[in-house]
User: Which sequence fits this backbone?
């Protein structure tokens, strides 16, 4: 049993998503080419099951392989937990094999347990120091934790081990250089990858996409504005660019007020604003979206709505995802979307020349969650907080989003008779654990798992039903 097993880490999946987008553009715009096909990726030869396993160990490894493939294709919490358990059994059954450790590390990254992931990945390269596929996963892992110097060092190790492999250059471009806002270095790495994979037409389109993510398309007329944290590019007007930069700073101040920390130190967040909806979608805006934050390219893109209020709602919501990404590479979905919906409807205030934003109930989520609370038709609090992205989007996604918003709103707004926050400290503890590299389950156990969840749930239900839109 010496079959090679392929899998995609969360970072690799994100890059594949980005490349899938640019592949569509490349097919649509490229002229016929006689360029040779891209060379096959080199293989270290270490990602195999040993051929000398006992029948019992072989059975354990095959069962772990099947469990992992299921979890990779359907990453529910139950499937991932089962795969991790079985891969751990395979690791013990094949102690000299790198493969179970390699994929156990990737599985931990799926659950957000980045410290555990790095621990087992480093155990793997202790067995096989030249396994450059695993070395690359460690570089990606450091990117997850925003440890950029360590990530750079491990990407360099990968390149030293596999100098004819384009993959580490692509990942370093997207996951390190784009992440820190170094566009020139990102493009340089894409060019290096292109010299290796000469038949890969996606790379040229990806190169252009990186540039556009920070500056927008080649408009005949461009208007730019910069503030402390933001870089605005639009084709609307200079007045609009200046206005948006100002408002973006105001909502950033509210993000910082809630989180107690400043996001994006040392770099500016790129925001691209198109003149209308049609132009936004012509430049890759997802179908059905009114704006989006691209975690692959770290840019926020939207269009100018006829009603300024709608433009601001999109800016506030998607801008929060951009802000949070500076702290967490893969935030739990309930936390990320719940907070986006928390900041989305924030109201602009001008009190005698002192400008600010204040939070307000989300009118699109409030009635949905109230109806579910009255009917008792909603997941348990712990179930929602432990949902994977697939589970959050599956089933009744609208209810899941409404419940996520309501839990965030409750934690951020519920006070006692003396005006003291009751549950906000628990939410802060949860965030603190996530920043340490704990997965969603470990972060939950060390925060919400320590409180009386029945009391919390009862208080949440009573509070939300009392909220007026």
Assistant:
């Amino acid at each position: 049993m010496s079959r090679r097993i392929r899998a995609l880490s969360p970072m690799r999946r994100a890059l594949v998503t980005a490349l899938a987008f640019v592949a569509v553009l490349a097919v649509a715009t490229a002229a016929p080419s006689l360029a040779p096909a891209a060379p096959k990726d080199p293989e270290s030869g270490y990602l195999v099951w040993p051929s000398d396993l006992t029948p019992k160990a072989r059975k354990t490894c095959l069962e772990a392989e099947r469990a992992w493939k299921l979890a990779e294709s359907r990453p529910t919490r139950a499937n991932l937990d089962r795969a991790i358990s079985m891969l751990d059994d395979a690791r013990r059954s094949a102690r000299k094999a790198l493969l179970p450790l390699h994929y156990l590390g990737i599985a931990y990254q799926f659950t957000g347990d980045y410290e555990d992931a790095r621990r087992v990945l480093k155990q793997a390269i202790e067995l096989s120091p030249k396994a450059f596929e695993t070395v690359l996963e460690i570089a990606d892992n450091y990117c997850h934790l925003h440890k950029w110097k360590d990530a750079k060092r491990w990407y360099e190790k990968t390149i030293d081990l596999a100098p004819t492999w384009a993959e580490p250059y692509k990942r370093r471009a997207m996951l390190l250089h784009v992440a820190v806002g170094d566009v020139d270095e990102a493009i340089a790495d894409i060019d290096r990858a292109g010299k290796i994979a000469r038949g890969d037409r996606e790379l040229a389109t990806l190169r252009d996409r990186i540039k556009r993510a920070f500056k927008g398309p080649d408009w005949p007329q461009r208007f730019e504005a910069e503030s402390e944290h933001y870089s605005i590019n639009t084709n609307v007007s200079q007045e609009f660019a200046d206005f948006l930069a100002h408002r973006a700073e105001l909502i950033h101040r509210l993000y910082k007020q809630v989180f107690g920390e400043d996001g994006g130190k040392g770099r500016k967040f790129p925001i691209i604003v198109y003149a209308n909806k049609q132009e936004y979608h012509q430049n890759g805006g997802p179908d059905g979206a009114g704006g989006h934050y691209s975690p692959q390219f770290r840019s926020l893109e939207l269009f100018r709505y006829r009603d300024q209020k709608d433009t601001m709602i999109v800016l506030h919501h998607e801008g929060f995802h951009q802000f949070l990404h500076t702290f967490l590479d893969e935030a739990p979905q309930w936390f990320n979307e719940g907070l986006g919906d928390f900041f989305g409807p924030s109201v602009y205030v001008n009190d005698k020349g002192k400008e600010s934003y204040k939070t307000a109930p989300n009118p699109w989520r409030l009635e949905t969650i109230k109806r579910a609370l009255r009917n008792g038709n909603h997941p348990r609090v712990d179930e929602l907080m432990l949902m994977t992205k697939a589970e959050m989007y599956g089933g009744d996604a609208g209810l899941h989003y409404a419940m996520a918003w309501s839990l965030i709103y409750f934690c951020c707004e519920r006070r006692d008779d003396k005006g003291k926050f009751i549950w906000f400290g628990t939410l802060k503890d949860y965030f603190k654990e996530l920043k340490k590299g704990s997965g969603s389950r470990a972060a939950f156990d060390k925060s919400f798992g320590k409180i009386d969840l029945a009391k919390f749930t009862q208080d949440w239900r009573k509070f939300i039903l009392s909220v007026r839109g």
